[in-house]
Write a structure and sequence with these properties.
The complex is a heterodimer of chains A (116) and B (112).
Chain A lengths: L3 E4 L2 E4 L5 E7 L4 E9 L5 E8 L5 E2 L8 E7 L2 E6 L8 E9 L2 E7 L3 E5 L1
Parallel strand pairs in A: 2-11
Antiparallel strand pairs in A: 1-3, 3-8, 4-5, 4-9, 5-6, 7-8, 9-10, 9-11
Chain B lengths: L3 E3 L2 E5 L4 E6 L4 E9 L6 E6 L5 E4 L2 E6 L4 E6 L8 E9 L8 E2 L3 E6 L1
Parallel strand pairs in B: 2-11
Antiparallel strand pairs in B: 1-3, 3-8, 4-5, 4-9, 6-7, 7-8, 9-10, 9-11
Chain lengths: 116, 112
């Protein structure tokens, strides 16, 4: 149980384009989903927290107009990187907490974004 | 606010033991431990919620010293599969629930 999927696993795009990453909880309802970014050989940095049906809460320094988060249902959250630039290239990982068990976060497999 | 992990890296022979520490300058509500293999997402190991709590997962266990604001991860009789980077994620009292602040990681390499 407690499986989280992400799609796509890898994406390469040109500078200026927008990229959407999906995060799904496959066998549980996720009231809260988290989005992290990890640069090579660095730790995971929390970008934002999204709760189903409400606006995401962004961490300091994360541009909410650039990283659009939508948590439309209890099993799906999306992160859209708008007008991506090479410095946005990173490993984006989502995690989800199960309703009634918010202490444990289950991570998706991650999405490797490369912006040319 | 970022917890401090030590050591930064450790190399072991199969069968040897290791301890990874995670210290915080702020009072901790919980500590989460993850292992990440290269190119993959982190995998949840365990969560410690109460001071003095100890948990075990086969030959991997952890303790949480609330007073010292630190947690330690113990790997005994290490196996090759234990190789990876270990992260502690911390929640602070007064912070938003679920917001984990991760340490920089400890890279563990287990050699045959």
């Amino acid at each position: 149980g407690a499986v989280v999927s992400q799609h796509p696993s890898r994406v390469i795009c040109k500078s200026g384009t927008s990229v959407k990453i999906e995060c799904r909880s496959l066998d549980f309802q996720a009231t809260t989903m988290f989005w992290y970014r990890q640069f090579p050989k660095q730790s995971l940095m929390l970008m934002a927290t999204s709760n189903e049906g409400s606006k995401a809460t962004y961490e300091q320094g994360v541009e909410k107009d650039k990283f659009l988060i939508n948590h439309a249902s209890l099993t799906l959250s999306t992160l859209t990187v708008t007008s991506a630039h090479p410095e946005d290239s990173s490993f984006y990982i989502c995690s989800a907490s199960e309703r009634g068990n918010t202490d444990t976060q289950y991570f998706g497999p991650g999405t490797r974004l490369t912006v040319l | 606010q970022q917890p401090v992990q030590s050591p930064q890296a450790v190399i072991l022979r199969e069968g040897e033991d290791a301890v990874i520490n995670c210290s915080s300058s702020k009072a901790l509500y919980s500590v989460h431990w993850y292992r990440q293999k290269h190119g993959e997402a982190p995998v949840f190991l365990m969560i410690l919620l109460k001071g003095g709590e100890q948990k075990g997962h086969e030959k991997i266990s952890a303790s949480f010293n609330e007073k010292k604001q630190q947690s330690s991860l113990y790997l005994t009789a290490s196996q090759l599969s234990y190789s990876g980077t270990y992260f502690c994620g911390t929640e602070f009292y007064g912070g938003s629930q679920g917001n984990l602040i991760f340490g920089k990681g400890t890279k563990l390499s287990v050699k045959p």
